[in-house]
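User: Can you recover a sequence for this backbone? Please restate the input before giving your answer.

Assistant: Of course. Working from this structure:
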């Protein structure tokens, strides 16, 4: 069998202790003193017998949690198939290992969550071409819909490059704006791919040891964050939305600075966390120490602009096409009724 990951968004390490040509041992990549959670690779079985690929150390990821285990996705590269999830007949997951059987002749791409790169965004924009939608290639790909004189809804996603479900959610948001003509009342600014370098490298959370979403009040912030901060100053900001997907919790949830009037199906609505609670949550659930004095994107926006702000966290258990539907429903529910925001 052969393993490939030398392409945009690919991420895995081949270990030396392989047994013959039908059992291949793989490892998560190291990323800033720890192991990445995201993985993506291709495997080709040109032999006449069943082969097995084993990711041997999933428990070494800080984001590994038994209650959140879900089966990885795969795509048949010999067909123009869509992403599907493995089931128990093809994939076994135990406390520290994923074992996937590869049939003779199979050529699969395997991923924790479906790979989503800039090419996928460009393909989406071609299919959804609209006179009201403008695309600008600046430091990041910027998508604008509507008159900038109107109150602005500012949306970002993929600060953490391995959280690809957020890109599908943003696709649904953009479709909702166009299909329901929400741009008649609001101006929209979308940045669907904030951490481009991390996306290209197949990273999960860090680039050059920097977590973009813990970097907003630092003078050493990444150039992409400095760029976004300047962009925020350009508009009459009505609402800021930061989209992620949570590796641990089995539910989709939202945190907002005002939850009194929020009524969004499919999401649990939570208050913003105070710094002390966030510290202990990270320590207990994610086994990591969070610097609570480093402002996240939403913390920064709350402090500077005092506008309505929302953090969207999609569960890894949420199927990727469902995330598109959720993004669509979310935007309509949030904005369709006059005066809801």
């Amino acid at each position: 069998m052969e393993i490939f990951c030398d392409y945009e968004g690919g991420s895995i390490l081949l270990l030396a202790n392989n047994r013959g040509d039908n059992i291949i041992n793989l490892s998560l990549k190291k990323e800033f003193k720890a192991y990445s959670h995201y993985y993506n690779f291709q495997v080709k079985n040109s032999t006449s017998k069943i082969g097995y690929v084993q990711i041997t150390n999933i428990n070494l990821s800080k984001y590994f949690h038994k209650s959140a285990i879900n089966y990885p996705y795969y795509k048949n590269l010999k067909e123009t198939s869509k992403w599907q999830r493995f089931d128990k007949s093809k994939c076994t997951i135990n406390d520290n290992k994923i074992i996937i059987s590869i049939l003779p002749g199979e050529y699969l791409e395997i991923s924790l969550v479906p790979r989503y790169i800039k090419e996928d965004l460009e393909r989406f924009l071609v299919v959804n071409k609209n006179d009201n939608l403008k695309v600008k290639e600046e430091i990041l790909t910027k998508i604008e819909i509507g008159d900038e004189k109107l109150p602005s809804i500012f949306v970002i996603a993929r600060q953490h490059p391995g959280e690809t479900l957020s890109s599908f959610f943003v696709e649904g948001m953009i479709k909702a704006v166009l299909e329901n003509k929400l741009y008649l009342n609001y101006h929209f600014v979308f940045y669907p791919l904030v951490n481009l370098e991390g996306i290209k490298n197949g990273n999960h959370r860090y680039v050059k040891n920097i977590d973009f979403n813990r970097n907003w009040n630092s003078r050493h912030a990444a150039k992409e964050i400095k760029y976004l901060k300047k962009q925020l100053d350009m508009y009459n900001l009505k609402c800021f939305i930061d989209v992620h997907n949570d590796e641990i919790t089995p539910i989709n949830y939202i945190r907002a600075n005002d939850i009194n009037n929020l009524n969004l199906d499919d999401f649990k609505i939570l208050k913003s966390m105070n710094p002390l609670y966030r510290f202990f949550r990270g320590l207990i659930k994610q086994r990591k120490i969070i610097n609570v004095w480093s402002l996240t994107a939403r913390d920064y926006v709350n402090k500077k602009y005092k506008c309505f702000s929302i953090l969207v966290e999609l569960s890894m258990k949420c199927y990727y096409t469902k995330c598109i539907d959720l993004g669509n429903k979310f935007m309509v529910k949030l904005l369709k009724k006059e005066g809801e925001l």
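That completes the design. The CA atoms of residues 5 and 210 lie 23 Å apart.
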